[in-house]
Specification:
It is built from five helices and nine strands, in the order ααβββββαβββαβα. The protein is of the alpha+beta class. It has a domain at about 40-135: OB fold (Dihydrolipoamide Acetyltransferase, E2P), CATH 2.40.50. The strands form two sheets. Strands 1, 2, 3, 4, 6, 7 and 8 form a seven-stranded mixed sheet that branches. A two-stranded antiparallel ribbon has the order 5-9. The radius of gyration is 23 Å and the shape is globular. Mean pLDDT is about 80; it is low at about 25-40.
Length: about 140
């Protein structure tokens, strides 16, 4: 086995990003913003409120993550739905967490620059649900 003197060894080349590739990456980020926020994040325009912790966003049924609101048949259910209608404005953005047992997407959502669940708790339309979120909205 021959030994190559240190001064004659090749230096490793650093990977280079061409100007064309860099422009493409920037264009993709500007045009298709979801490339930056990840696969499970999305933005929607069409909103329909179902109840105090469930709404449809562009046809996808969303269950607001981490809170529990009264059901429509319970005391406070109609008020909670009305509260969601006031808080939720288009566009809304959501980060999918997981599907629930009813086929809804459980997601943390934002509208008008505010966390929807935090606003529901703050305004008294829902309560923190620590079993699912570890007390995230109890603070």
């Amino acid at each position: 086995m021959s030994v190559v003197p240190f001064h004659r060894r090749r230096r490793q080349q650093k990977p280079r990003v061409s100007a064309t590739s860099l422009k493409g990456i920037i264009a993709l980020a500007l045009i298709g913003g979801s490339a930056l926020v990840g696969y499970d994040a999305f933005i929607g325009q069409r909103l329909h409120v179902v109840d105090g912790d469930t709404f449809d966003l562009d046809g996808e049924r969303i269950r607001v993550w981490g809170v529990q609101a009264p059901e429509m048949r319970d005391t406070g259910g109609q008020a909670a739905k009305a509260g969601v209608k006031r808080i939720l404005v288009a566009p809304a953005s959501c980060e999918r967490k997981y599907p629930d047992q009813f086929g809804r997407t459980v997601a943390q959502c934002f509208s008008g620059g505010k966390d929807i669940a935090a606003e529901l708790v703050r305004q008294g339309f829902a309560v923190d649900w620590p079993y699912y979120n570890g007390g995230y909205y109890a603070r």
